Amino acid sequence: MKNKLPVKTTKAVTKKPAALSGTKPLWAGRLAEKPQAEAFAFQSSINVDKHLVFDDINGSRAHVAMLGKQRIIPKDSAAKISRELEIIADEIKSGKLTIDTQAEDIHSFLEAVLTKRLGDTGKMVHAGRSRNDQVAVDSRLYLKRKIPKLRKELAALINTLLDIAQLHITSLMPGYTHLQRAQPVTLGFHITAWCAALERDYSRFNDALQRLDECPLGSGALAGSTLPLDRKAVSMALKFNRPTLNSMDAIADRDFVLELSSACAITMVHLSRFCEDVILWASEEFKFVELSESLSTGSSIMPQKKNPDFAELIRGKSGRAVGNLVTLFTMLKGLPYSYNKDLQEDKESLFDSIKTLSICLRMFSGMMKSANFNLKRMKAACIGGFLEATDTAEYLVRKGLPFRSAHEAAALIVRDCIKAGQKHITNRPLGELMKRSVLFEEDIYEALTPAACVKARELPGGPAPKEVQRQIKALRMKLQTSNVK
Ligand code: ARG
Question: What is the pLDDT of residues 138-183, one digit of tens each?
């Protein structure tokens, strides 16, 4: 049968792909052939690492100042390079100089600009360093800037939520397990539970920050340098705690990226779970909360709809954060020591996780600030699911009955209620209750109101208003004393 598919001519197959025009790569001396344009673009990272431009400039200025002090390059050349880097930073900020996205990466771009402007002096900047320790220092500097910002946004959200919790330490609502009504709690207690989780995230970011606070510059490509670099001075100039311990580790390590992405993913999963609560609460079935119209959307077809899209989007975006973490783990797990180009793939995921978390923290905060809670509806939901059954059993325990027997008596009373169409254990007369245990007395009726059930749980960690007040104070204290750099 005749093949109808178009057949490529030999000429088309052997046609050479377009070669790269413009700036020469830093490594052009080694390779006689010009790189193929599409392939060069494939391996270039400038569209991602351009976000490191100011970190790269700061790193280079610290490096070059040290080169001058150590007489590795003439002092006045070091000063010239440093000044030019400052000018370049200003020009990029003002828009006078645009980053050339045809360059291989941000490090190459900046060296090319320096060389173009300063000639041989510009060519001195790279003495004693490699793009391997350069990209490692840039990423760490970037995180040293971003983590405190994220922590500020997290602290703002926690404080907003604690304000809401404070307003509602006596607002009754059902607490759930298995999404079934379990025991009465308060809205204040529920929201404080969220805050306890977020406070751990807040400190997790700080832990990560402490660990990554070491300066890789001076590690070179993997094995340091023969030049008399002063690693301590560079580390101090860049406000790191200390230089990294081992040069091979310093350029192979991306634990700090994993830790950060993990902290982002954990926080996003927390937000996602809170959003799931909010989405349920906003449903007609629960009707516990009315979300502000400015943070809801309508439907293109159903005129009555008011959808909790923002909560849904935050829940949805948590998938990205988890995905980014998985991307990083998968990228890293098979890499031999030390640098491999695979590592270049780390930044897109890391940047995305940070950006996603940051906007979600702000959106969630706005959504909660403007939410209107239907306290009547929440309180009413404490009746009807026998949320007081555990309290009934514990009442009997207090009167001396073994817990298992008390549990059985309370369970039988619940069955009695269901049979009789009664919604609350206190709907049963004392005589009926006493058929299940003679230990019941008149005081059971007081003990089983939702408010009494909550008030009686004043153990540390419990939902009693007094105790939640203490928890709120403790969380506020933690936020104040936790080390924000
Ligand atoms: N763009 C590279 C990265 O992000 C910089 C380091 C390049 N090093 C190298 N040996 N090619 O990883």
Answer: 999 999 999 999 999 999 999 999 999 999 999 999 999 999 999 9
Beta carbon of 254 within 6 Å of any ligand 1 atom:
no
Sign of the Cα torsion 103, 129, 354, 340 reads: positive
Amino acid type, 480: Q
Mutate to test the pocket of ligand 1, among 135, 139, 219 (most ligand atoms within 8 A of CB): 135
* Cβ 143 vs Cβ 212: under 8 Å: yes
What kind and span of H or E run contains 373?
Answer: strand 372-373
Looking at the structure, do residues 312 and 325 belong to the same domain, yes or no? yes
- Give 18's DSSP letter: P
Task: Go through the chain and tell me how many residues it has.
Answer: 485
User: What is the per-residue pLDDT across 182-219, written as a single tens digit (0 to 9) for each?
Assistant: 999 999 999 999 999 999 999 999 999 999 999 999 99
pLDDT at 183: 96
Q: Say how far apart CA 59 and CA 30 lie, in whole Å.
A: 26
Shared domain for 365 and 419, answered yes or no, is: no
Q: What percent of the chain has pLDDT over 90?
A: 86
Ligand 1 contact, 132 CB (< 6 A): yes
Residues serving a catalytic function are 178, 299
Within this chain, do residues 402 and 437 fall inside the same structural domain, yes or no?
Answer: yes
Q: Does the beta carbon of 139 sit less than 6 angstroms from any atom of ligand 1?
A: no
- Is the model more confident about 7 or about 472? 472
User: What range does the domain containing 452 cover?
Assistant: 389-481
Q: Residue with the nearest Cα to atom 4 of ligand 1?
A: 344
